[in-house]
Amino acid sequence: MSADDLVSFAVVLGVSFGLSFALTPLARWLGLRWGIVDVPRGRHRHPYAISKFGGLAMYAAFMVAAIVAQFLPVVRTDDKEIIRLIGLLLGGTFLFVFGLLDDRYEFSALPQYVAQLLAAAIAVLFLIIIEGFNNPLTGQRTPEWPYVVTVTLTLFWLGFMMNTVNWLDGLDGLAAGVCGVAALMIFIHAAFRLDQVSVSLLALALFGATLGFLPYNFPPARIFMGTNGALFLGYSIGVLGIIGGAKMATVLLVMGLPLLDVVWQIVRRVRAGRSPTEGDRGHVHYRLLDLGISPRQIVLGYYAFCTLFGAVALVTASRLYKLIALLVMGAVIVGGFLVLSRRTSAEE
After folding, report:
1. CA 345 to chain CA mean position, Å
2. Which of 158, 181, 275, 347 is close enough to 120 for a disulfide, judged by CB 3.0 to 4.6 Å?
3. Where are the domains positioned within the chain?
4. Is 42 left (phi over 0), alpha (psi -120 to 50) or beta?
């Protein structure tokens, strides 16, 4: 790690954190002025209307920091990096704009899924594609898959990540903090394990953007990120898990709890004869809240859980151990789901 690399880290983190921290109050004011607010209703139990334009601060901070990073003196190991960066920026911009419209006009689920599919297609168009996996048992790369398989997997992965973050955004500070943990783990993995400094700067920019937003979003929140922020963050985490390679396992370990929560909610709602997109208070964070646990305790618990399993991905180079960690984490989470199901009453 050279001195230029360390200076580059400081510049990107300073720009992203500083801009996000400075722009969030403006985003809050604009949201209130333009009527982009979340009013108390249903499962939303905050006491008054709150701006949900927080995605503006994180989006702008990340975009500026990501562009600044392209002019810093670091080694670039991917000859197609600029193409993939354009895909990340274009897809993120498209989702931010769509999310803003959704926050203002509250579209149904179908337009959201179409927008997510289009954004994922932008990623594929700019060479952000899951090309294969390393077999955790043999350590060897899987044979080259047909293009239709790789594209389908990529679309599914990105859609899954976008919906996970969007559904996770139900408690003050939860989605932004968990995404911040994921971005930090991707940064450490890329910079210090894979020596992909240029790619790591993008993850560091996203970490700084979430970190600058959190002081205003941590319980009790003064501003929400809205769909404009949730879709942007989910897409960015999904893309960063692909580019450069070998980071999807890190994302899976960090985001395992919210990812499995999404699967649980879909299965639960379908079994009850309801639409899987119909919102309720069945999510883990809502159930914990209904048990009397404070929002801060829940949010900090999520941070700790995600950090713990993210650290596993950093301290071991063995793909087999990572697979074992994934299985252990899955068993712990499923066990927790069963306990929560018995101890809480949610709309089924």
Report:
1. 28
2. 158
3. 3-246
4. left
Beta bridge partners of 173: none
Asked if 257 and 134 touch (Cβ cutoff 8 Å), the reply is no
Please report, to the nearest 10 degrees, the dihedral formed by the alpha carbons of residues 65, 70, 76, 78 taken in order: 90
Residues 181, 307: Cα–Cα separation, whole Å: 6
Judge whether 58 and 217 are in contact, CB under 8 Å. Answer: no
Phi, psi for residue 131 in degrees, rounded to 5: -90, -15
Phi and psi torsions of 246, nearest 5°: 65, 20
Rounded to an integer, what is the distance from CA 117 to the centroid of its chain? Answer: 16
Interval 163-216: pLDDT, tens: 999 999 989 999 999 999 999 999 999 998 888 999 999 999 999 999 999 999
Identify the weakest region by mean pLDDT among 135-144, 152-161, 218-227, 263-272. Answer: 135-144
- DSSP-derived letter for residue 38 is E
3-state secondary structure at position 149 = helix
Token pair, residue 236, equals 């960015």
Residue 78, classed as helix, strand or coil, is coil
Give the tokens for residue 35: 């009527």
Cβ atoms within 10 A of the Cβ of 277, count? 15
Residue pair 346/280 in contact by the 8 Å Cβ criterion: yes
- pLDDT one-digit tens code per residue, 109-164: 899 999 999 999 999 999 999 887 666 555 566 677 788 999 999 999 999 999 99
Residues 6+ apart with CB under 8 A from 265: 167, 276, 282, 283
Alpha helices in the chain (DSSP H): 3-34, 55-69, 81-105, 109-125, 147-168, 174-188, 197-217, 226-240, 248-254, 256-271, 284-290, 295-315, 319-343
